[in-house]
Amino acid sequence: MSDKMKLALDRINNKQGKIEESDRIDFCHTHFAELSIVPSGIANKYPLNINFDELPHRIYRFKDDLTEIINGNAYSYYLNLAKQVYQEVGHRKAATPMMLMSRFESLRPGYYGSKGAVLIANTLIGLFINTRILTVVKSYPLQSINYIQEVLVPETAMRLIFEDIGGNSSLETARNIMIASSDFGDYVHNCDNE
User: Fold this and answer.
1) Where is each Restriction of telomere capping protein 4 C-terminal domain found (predicted)?
2) For 121-172, how does the pLDDT look when each residue is reduced to its tens digit (9 = 90+)?
3) Distances in Å between the alpha carbon of 32 and those of 5, 22, 39, 181?
4) Where are the domains of the chain?
């Protein structure tokens, strides 16, 4: 039994008969992850250990590529996706929390998990918002912070994964790995695991 499973079981055992539904759900999620998500991720060679301290330096190397996306000089799958949503439902509705949550699944940073998402976003804010490279005009129709979350975070995660797999395939392959490895990342590299 893994340490996470032992901890989840200990939490339930310490409730002394007052187990809540949320405790059961947490335990079942941990159990499912340990029996299915993690072994599947290991079989697919998703990293159990990531040097998160190194990520900002790796992200800085993508600054030129990401600036080209911001300036409209390079293709971005995620920018096209965001613009499509804004055109279909309108600017106001597309920016609502419910609409953002509906797109969340496709924007997760793969096996980098929520820990990676936070680090990537913070690094990108420093690179592009604090330096005024990403402006309200350039991020339109998205707000600058939404542009970071919906376009630049997944574009960056895709490039990190592309590097991780040797840089010999395509960004499309990296995007497919990012999508397939998101549950693994959400479990293994979660901010709550600190």
Assistant:
1) 69-191
2) 999 999 999 999 999 999 998 899 999 999 999 999 999 999 999 988 899 9
3) 10, 15, 10, 15
4) 3-44, 52-189
Strands, DSSP E only, in 63-157? none
Non-local (6+) Cβ contacts of 95 within 8 A are 142, 143, 146
Query: Nearest 10 degrees: CA dihedral of 37, 165, 171, 163?
Result: 120
Tell me the pLDDT tens digit for each residue of 69-128: 999 999 999 999 999 988 888 878 887 778 777 777 788 999 999 999 999 999 999 999
For the chain, state the CA radius of gyration.
Answer: 19
- Helix count (H) and strand count (E) of the chain? 14, 0
To 10 degrees, the CA torsion angle through 126, 132, 135, 138? -90
Task: Measure the CA–CA gap between 143 and 146, rounded to whole angstroms.
Answer: 5
Q: DSSP letter for 108, please.
A: -
Q: For the residues of 1-41, what is the DSSP string, one character each?
A: --HHHHHHHHHHHTTTT---HHHHHHHHHHHHIIIIIHHHH
Tell me the pTM. Answer: 0.88
**Maximum Cα interatomic distance, the chain, rounded to a whole number of Å:** 61
